[in-house]
Amino acid sequence: MGVLVNVLVHGVLGFSRKDTTGDIVRYLFSVISMFVFAFLQKLTKGGLYNPLTALASGVSGGFSSFIFSVVVRIPVEVLGSILAVKHIIHVFPEIGKGPKLNVAIHHGALTEGILTFFIVMLSLGLTRKIPGSFFMKTWIGSIAKLTLHVLGADLTGGCMNPAAVMGWAYARGEHITQEHLLVYWLGPVKATLLAVWFFNVVFKPLTEEQQEKPKAKSE
């Protein structure tokens, strides 16, 4: 979706890539696109487009949920990304080659891992703290994702989505390279597992304790 936003802002609307106004407009459309995907997720009752979100949900949901995420959801998301990039390149052949690693492999893996850790932690926290507020949850999540993306854009592309990167890497024939697997898969996946574990160990007991206090008082 980010590639199409770039086409809209710089190709259709004509903003320069070095223009601050163009960056602001691009960020605005990025937030709007995240709201659209959040609405589609709500409409489909849990549809996802990021393997890391599916993995976090699967790990938190138990063994059967984990198996379903790994065997069904994640492969389908990757396949969808590959097909989407193929059609995008067919329609917009001048569009580019997707995210690019501009640092050493281990530095890139660490960067994607740190970005992923924080966004997964935030997603878990929003789901736990404000489960019913669609607008507020989506707004906070969108601004956080955009901020983390900007922080990592010049290093790794700030992707935090292995499926999205996989589509472009497959189109370039680089989907089984060490760079792609370590930076855009291994780093984020390990960070996701660490974030889920850390959240359940540190924050989940606090949340349950806060929920039990009103019950004790009412009794």
From TrEMBL:
Domain of life: Eukaryota
Membrane topology: Multi-pass membrane protein
Primary location recorded for the protein, binned into one broad class: membrane
Membrane spanning stretches: 24-40, 52-74, 104-126, 146-170, 182-203
Subcellular location: Membrane
Keywords annotated in UniProt: Membrane, Transmembrane, Transmembrane helix, Transport
Pfam families the record matches: MIP
Cytoplasm among keywords: no
Similarity field: Belongs to the MIP/aquaporin (TC 1.A.8) family.
PANTHER family documented for this protein: AQUAPORIN SIP2-1-RELATED (PTHR47720)
Name of this chain's protein: Aquaporin SIP2-1
Species whose genome carries this gene: Brassica napus (Rape)
